[in-house]
């Protein structure tokens, strides 16, 4: 859905939140409520700066919050680390294969100095189906599969 429409449907997010909430209560009783909320809110707080600068989309954060609600706080932290590692590896491979690694590094540096010099910011990510727009749901999916499969857990 994210690859085709550039968004994550809120109905799927709500379904995941409900499932995570009830799974935690079923598994841990009343303590599962705390486990659910701590895991669901951690990605929101952790990724807020990236969302503020429009470096990551809201759907990606909501998806990670759903996974955090299911996994709980310590596990979602590990999932976030390995999801970002997977994203970095995929991004680097994509930029090298497209031949625009130097251009994207230059864009990031000029963006950083522009924001710092002016004291204001503009969205980092360009709208539309630009080739450099990386859909972070792909590393979230790969990281989740590897995490739940026991590769990193």
Instruction: List segments where confidence is low: pLDDT < 50 over at least 5 consecutive residues.
Output: none
Radius of gyration: 17 Å
Helix content: over 70%
How many angstroms separate the termini?
A: 28 Å
Q: Give the CA-based shape.
A: elongated
Mean pLDDT across every amino acid position:
83
Compressed to H and E, one letter per element, the order equals HHHHHHH
- The total of helices stands at 7
Q: Could you say how many structural domains there are in total?
A: 1
State the major sheet: none
Which structural traits does this protein have?
single chain, 153 residues, mainly alpha, 0% strand
Structure description:
The chain is elongated, with a radius of gyration of 17 Å. With 153 residues, the chain is mainly α. The model has no long low-confidence stretch (mean pLDDT 83). It starts with a helix and ends in a 5-residue tail after the last helix. The protein has 7 helices and no strands. The protein has one domain.
Give a concise summary.
With 153 residues, the chain is mainly alpha-helical.
Helix and strand arrangement:
Elements: H1 2-5, H2 10-28, H3 31-52, H4 58-71, H5 73-98, H6 101-118, H7 137-148
Helix pairs in contact: 2-3, 2-4, 3-4, 3-5, 4-5, 5-7
């Amino acid at each position: 859905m994210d690859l085709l429409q550039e968004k994550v449907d809120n109905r799927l997010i709500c379904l995941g939140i409900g499932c995570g909430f009830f799974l935690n209560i079923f598994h841990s009783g009343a303590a599962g409520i705390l486990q659910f909320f701590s895991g669901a809110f951690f990605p929101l707080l952790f990724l807020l700066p990236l969302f503020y600068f429009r470096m990551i989309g809201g759907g990606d954060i909501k998806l990670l919050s759903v996974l955090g609600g299911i996994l709980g706080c310590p596990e979602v932290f590990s999932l976030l680390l390995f999801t970002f590692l997977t994203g970095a590896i995929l991004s680097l491979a994509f930029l090298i294969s497209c031949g625009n690694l130097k251009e994207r590094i230059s864009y990031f540096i000029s963006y950083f100095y522009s924001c710092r010099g002016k004291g204001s910011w503009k969205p980092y990510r360009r709208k539309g189906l630009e080739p450099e727009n990386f859909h972070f749901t792909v590393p979230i999916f790969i990281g989740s599969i590897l995490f739940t499969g026991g590769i990193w857990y």
